[in-house]
């Protein structure tokens, strides 16, 4: 199986939508960037057996909280829920990041989480 197909399987199982939809915004400007994201993190990192997807997504939520990348954070909050994390676990991880990322980033991340929970009708 190619790296692309391996990564595609993983990303679609986590995000519950086709890769074409996930990376649609890149199609006309940088389609290779989406392909790189599929072939490296999702094919080479997420498939390593040492850590389960539930843990990987919580780590991703924490990292993106620190970075302050809200659109990607919303995607990964959804993914974290899709692989079995609870809203409470996600909230706790974001709260913990206030000590490392600062309160503004943690608050922005919490607002993003609230929006995702409301969209999914779980708040």
Could you explain the architecture of this structure?
This protein is an all-alpha fold and 123 residues long. The chain contains 7 helices and no strands. Helix 4 (53-67) crosses helix 6 (87-101) and helix 6 (87-101) runs antiparallel to helix 7 (103-119). The longest helix has 17 residues, at 103-119. The radius of gyration is 14 Å and the shape is globular.
Describe the secondary-structure layout.
Blueprint: H1 3-15, H2 19-22, H3 31-45, H4 53-67, H5 70-82, H6 87-101, H7 103-119
Structure keywords:
123 residues; globular; mainly alpha
**Largest sheet geometry:** none
Structural class of the helices, strands and pairings? mainly alpha
Cα end-to-end separation: 40 Å
Fraction of residues in helix: over 70%
Helix and strand succession?
HHHHHHH
What is the percentage of strand-forming residues? under 5%
What would you report as the Rg, rounded to the nearest angstrom? 14 Å
| DSSP summary: helix tally | 7
* Parts with pLDDT < 50 across at least 5 consecutive residues: none
**Shape estimate:** globular
Q: Summarize model confidence as the mean pLDDT.
A: 96
The beta-strand count equals 0
Brief overview:
The chain has 123 residues and is mainly alpha-helical. It is built from 7 helices and no strands.
